Fold this protein.
Amino acid sequence: MKSKGTRDIPPRASAMMEALRGLGYSPPAALADIVDNSISACASEVRIGFAWDSQGSRISVLDDGRGMDDAGLEAAMRLGGKSPLDARNPDDLGRFGIGLKTASFSQCRRLTVASKAIGRDLCCLRWDLDAIAERPEDGWLVFEGPAEGSEGYLTPLEGMGSGTLVLWEQLDRIVTDGYTADHFGDLLDDVEKRLAMVFHRLLQGPRPKLCLRLNGRPVTPWDPFMSGHPGKPWNSPVERRFTPSGVVEAECHVLPHRDRMTQDEHDAAAGPEGWTSQQGFYVYRNGRLLLAGGWLGLGQGRAWNREEAQRLARIRLDIPNTADADWKIDIRKSTARIPVALRPWLTRLAEDTREKARRVFAWRGAPMAVAGGGAVEQAWRLDRTRAGARYRIDENHPAVAAALDASGPANALVRAMLRVIEETVPVQRIWLDTAENRETPRTGFDGEPPENVRAVLATLFQSMVARGVEPAAAKRTLLATEPFHNYPALVGELPGGGTAAH
């Protein structure tokens, strides 16, 4: 047996490069990784360009950061140029030292990076996977300068004092067979939505840290917590926990019920994945969103799923960039695991938030009367018995009471009709429609023209007045009754004084 020694077994460049392409980046996630590098380079503006030209289509990312000299660019283009164990700047958004390359290779076969530091000449290096495959004996071959015919794409950088341009060409993972300009446009829209979410905290506020443009159009931030919305029922104080890897912050939010939002607000707040999918934890590092939604494996007995009843629950978590290893942040910044020591704390916060969200969702935002501060009269009540829960029509609801009082000899028939309605509520169908369509069936005259609401209001008002109720008192009762509490102006139009529209 030979003596024990060591061997140098370097990876084959072409095989390794192709393997790195399979890390599973989506185009938006890959572009977000490129923007991370721009932010780490202190860029104040990042311009992303999508240029459609069939197989010659390209995507570019240009920033006005501090740029790099030739040695710095070579280090940036090196695979594994920085160890995840190295100490990092507190504002650094990277960790593994391969994000630029792996994110780019996941989408294209040719990566060109040009950079210019203040007072230095422009430098440019290029990875070309086809050239590496054709010349395996040359190993990890990096070319100087852009590919022939691509020189003009570097022009925007030449007039800048400093900055970096990342160019993706040969987009074989994007422009596949049958891919059209319309598909490319749809991809641009998807990228805009994702970047608006991922970088929203850097893009928003009176003095945003970053301006992000997509084909010249500013990206508008998407705030998952609807900060400042007047209909928002609750958010918690910020809680902090000190850990060996730094401070973790948590802030819990319950978003407004559908009745407290306009249609545009409701559509926007749903986020890129829709209301149900966007519930849960939002994990940030240095203001950059890593994970959007999900319960990170928490739950009592079994892990919680994303369910319709908790769709309004969202929790902000801020972790330091020194905690990546503890939280198991992966290369793509798409997964995380809560450290064992923090699970009881975050479970408690999540349980409380989920319960509050369920109440708001189930009780239509816990409606309060416009006047007087009392609870709104609701048409349905929940009765809990040993046999289970049942929903009953509340005979004290003004509309129900008016119908029963006016029914005369038909009273028994009206009560029988109400009982049939109670016993035939399509609970399972409503549940399936809600779960499958990711949307709650419309109620409360939602989407109905005002004249339809006026007609029902007039009938109830006339019935109440005919039974001896003073007009002003009838209007106050209607204003404190679901669903008419949402229509104070229409209640105010009814004849008789005493109640003004609010």
User: Anything to note?
Assistant: Residues 380-492 form one domain.
